[in-house]
Amino acid sequence: MRIITWNVNGIRACIKKGFEAWLEYTKPDILCLQEVRAFQEQVTPFAKHIKGAQQIWNSATKPGYSGVMTLYQQGELYTYNLNLGKDDFDQEGRLIELDCGDFLLYNIYFPNGGRDLKRVNFKLSFYEKLLKRAKKQIKDGRDVIIAGDFNTCHQEIDLARPKANMKNTGFLPEERAWVQKFMDSGFTDSFRHLYPSRESIYSWWSQRGGAREKNVGWRLDYFLVSSGLLDRIQDTVYHSNTLGSDHCPVELILK
Q1: DSSP state, 175?
Q2: Active site includes 99?
Q3: Residue 51's CB: how many other CB atoms inside 10 A?
Q4: Are the C-beta atoms of 94 and 66 separated by less than 8 Å?
Q5: How far apart are CA 124 and CA 34, in angstroms?
Q6: Burial tier of 68 (Cβ tally within 10 Å: 0-12, 13-18, 19+)
Q7: What is the DSSP letter of 122?
Q8: Distance CA 104, CA 15 (A)
Q9: Which of 143, 149, 158, 221 is catalytic?
């Protein structure tokens, strides 16, 4: 099974940059998109590129903001949930929880703390609420995958310039500590599970100063996998050469 997560930084803009051709070529079993910034009716249907595909949308109530979409190939209809249970979070369209039978798959667009750091507490509350739910699901015997844009780098190895970003959102100690809480609660970063010391692998680059060409990036996009699925991880691949967004797609391959 191949699952791909991608923050497309606006699905309508990404479509103009070749998204549909990319989708036709890659044909993932499940595709998790973040920051779609559109309502479903604003987007030309592209499910035709994958036979029998189903689309699930969770758009923000605010036009042109946030939003996630999950597309999957299965002919049967999976059950899903769009809410975390708090209006402040749910109105921003940040979550799709898909029940894939043998595991639950979260497609998540975690909040950004903001350049002025005014949304850091909001972001940390989101982490807390999600972890509380996921821990209960694991306790109840479910395996869980959390995919998406975490908007935080976990370790210094996960960004090109850690020392220069210690006081910036995305690498604040309190943000990193919450990612660690997921690890301490039974989740594993699928990429670091396979490649614990691989450097210079990123998923987001600033659009200024030629950052992508210089590979001055951040690894913000992850697959966190509960312990019951670890032996199924075959690979995790960062497709850094795929353009169309300031993020790149990340692929999890399960046996």
Answers
A1: H
A2: no
A3: 9
A4: yes
A5: 19
A6: buried
A7: H
A8: 28
A9: 149
Phi-psi region of 101 (alpha: psi -120 to 50; beta: other; left: phi over 0): left
The tokens describing 249, both together, are 């797609």
Which amino acid is present at 186?
G
Q: Which two tokens stand for residue 75?
A: 């002919």
Q: Which helix (H) or strand (E) holds 139?
A: helix 120-139
Residue 229: Cβ-neighbour burial (10 angstroms; 0-12, 13-18, 19+): buried
For 56: left if phi > 0, alpha if psi spans -120 to 50, otherwise beta; the answer is beta
Instruction: Give residue for tokens 């975690």.
Output: 110
Which amino acid, 23?
L
Question: Any idea which residue has 């399960």 for tokens?
Answer: 254
Q: List the CATH code of the domain at 2-254.
A: 3.60.10.10
Dihedral over Cα of 35, 37, 41, 42: its sign:
negative
pLDDT by residue, tens only, the chain of 255 residues: 999 999 999 999 999 999 999 998 999 999 999 999 999 999 977 756 666 788 999 999 999 999 999 999 877 779 999 999 999 999 999 999 999 999 999 999 999 999 999 999 999 999 999 999 999 999 999 999 999 999 999 999 999 999 999 999 999 999 999 999 999 999 999 999 999 999 999 999 999 999 999 999 999 999 999 999 999 999 999 999 999 999 999 999 999
Structure token pair of residue 152: 């935080």
pTM of the model: 0.97
Question: Could you tell me the CA-to-CA distances from 218 to 3, 115, 116, 254 in Å, in that order?
Answer: 21, 16, 19, 25
Residue whose token pair is 């100063």: 209
